[in-house]
Amino acid sequence: MNRWRSFRNLALWKQVIAWVVASIVILSGIGAALGEDTSSTSVATGTATTTTTAAPTTTTPPTTAAPTTTLPPTTAPLTTSPPTTAVPPSTTAASPLTAPPTVAPTTPATPPRTGPGGCYPLSSSENCYQAGQFCSASDSGKSGIAANGQKITCRPSGNRHRWEAS
Fold this sequence. Notes:
By secondary structure, the chain is an alpha+beta fold. The protein has 3 domains: 3-32, no CATH class; 42-81, no CATH class; 113-166, no CATH class. It contains 2 helices and 6 strands; from the N terminus they run H-H-E-E-E-E-E-E.
């Protein structure tokens, strides 16, 4: 008897356990193969940046650095260098940690197209609607003003939609 048939003859719960274990092993292998390379880790604190590699090296710090949070290195010891120049705090500029508030530009809402006498919405032929006329299903629930100044609303009426006085 071949191995596949002997496996398929096992109890269902044993098959399920075997598939779960096999999936975990395969996913662990894929995760290990695609995992991060931890040989180089960069840590930024305050104004100094420290880089660690297999051989300890030192990088020059940036003039301004926003604080970031990263995991500490796990292999080589850290080598730091103090900042070479001190940057005096600015009294006029905003702190680098706070962004200036952003204000969304305001644009006026576009008014609906109106016909003679201020009626809206207009039909595709640029005419005013009247109560009782058909309206499209996409206009369902929309309101407007008829040519005579009466308020109208598009509502279902049987299997169609009609403009009704409201």
